[in-house]
Amino acid sequence: MTQRNVQLPPLEVLQQAFDYRPETGEMFWRHRPLDFFRDRRAQSIANARAGKEATSVARNRWGYEWKKVGLTWDHSRRRRNILAHRVIWKLMTGDEPPEQIDHRDGDALNNRWDNLRDGTEKNHLNRAMPKDNSSGVTGVYWMAKKRKWAAVVRIEGRSKHLGLFAFDDLDLAAMEVLEAKVDMGYSPRHGMGLAPYHTKEAG
Predict the structure, then answer these.
(1) CA distance 15 to 140
(2) Can you give the residue ranges of every domain in the chain?
(3) Of 177, 83, 169, 66, nearest to 124 (Cα)?
(4) At a CB cut-off of 8 Å and minimum separation 6, what does 125 contact?
(5) Residue 154: Cβ within 10 Å count
(6) Which of 14, 57, 123, 169 fits 165 for a cystine, CB–CB 3.0-4.6 Å?
């Protein structure tokens, strides 16, 4: 399903794990201490990649690409996938990242520091509050009482609710509906008036 923002580890964990190069946007693994891992064998395997690129490219079924990193810490056996640009924000500022981070040039693979900016205020300015429940996307409508977008699909005449999304997360709501429809056998564009941000070309 759609990758969402997850809770980031503490700043000191990120500083121990990653070497970020602001001028290029690259992230490399550091040699991590034992307390990141469940045992010395896991540590040895992971640290064999120290000095190598830490990110990988994720891609959804519509061709949109971004960079992610997978990290374990606190003796956890669970590897968490994290959006790379959110890790970068915390590394560079010491603060939790904003709800949305924009890539200035529209290229989500370009994580140079000068290409990242807080997108929350920008999106509030650029997106007017809906006057009715229309989002332009079939299956996504505005719930005025909750002040959230609702994502819904119909299966055999019954509605299946996929979740509620914040005002600035219309794109996530639309992607949830798209993924559900594709899983049901529909074309990805069935009933959709999609904005260009769902394509690779738009970033």
Answers:
(1) 39
(2) 11-120, 127-198
(3) 169
(4) none
(5) 12
(6) 169
The tens-digit pLDDT sequence of the chain (203 residues) is 344 567 899 999 999 999 999 999 999 999 999 988 888 999 999 999 999 999 999 886 656 688 999 998 776 667 888 899 999 999 999 999 987 888 888 788 999 999 999 876 555 444 444 555 566 677 888 887 888 888 888 877 788 888 888 876 777 888 888 888 777 665 444 444 433 333 333 33
d(CA 3, CA 9): 17
Q: CB within 8 A of 7, min separation 6: which ones?
A: none
Distances (CA, A) of 139 to 13, 24, 147, 174, 178: 40, 40, 16, 8, 9
CA atoms within 13 A on the CB side of 12: 4
d(CA 36, CA 59): 28
159, amino acid identity: S
Token pair 């977008």 is found at 149
Residue 107's Cβ-count burial label (10 Å; 0-12, 13-18, 19+) is: middle
What is the CATH code for 127-198?
A: 1.20.5
Question: Max alpha carbon distance in the chain (Å)?
Answer: 58
Which long-range CB contacts under 8 A does 120-124 form with residues at least 24 apart? 120/168, 123/168, 124/167, 124/168
